[in-house]
Amino acid sequence: MSNSEENIDLNDSQTTRGQDQERYNEVRYLTAASTPLPLHPFLAAFFPKGAFFKLFFTLELVQQLCNFTNEYMEATKHLRPSLAKNWNKLTPDEFHIFIGLLIYFSIVKLLRLELY
């Protein structure tokens, strides 16, 4: 390993806002450059957006997961009263948004949560 490689500390707590901004801009450029090309119209007719996801997460399964989540919250709300008072029942649309965010966060790596 060369001397310059030994001196690199990726977890350096002394980074400045300017360095963070440079890294953020680089990540934005890389993710914009790597956006997938549109699907060919012939294939798009057979594979609409979300079709692959729905092979594994059917509407019935998503509804069941939402029901389990809501039942769990109902059963444990006495343990978390501050969370329970603001709780709204989870819907399939919200579940899909949550899964979409998890997938997005796993693909696009940013330095801090606030940058998303």
TrEMBL record:
Stored Pfam families: DDE_Tnp_1_7
Domain PiggyBac transposable element-derived protein as annotated: residue spans: 52-114
Polar residues compositional bias, start-end: 1-18
Highest taxon above the source species: Eukaryota
Stretches for region Disordered: 1-22
Protein name according to UniProt: PiggyBac transposable element-derived protein domain-containing protein
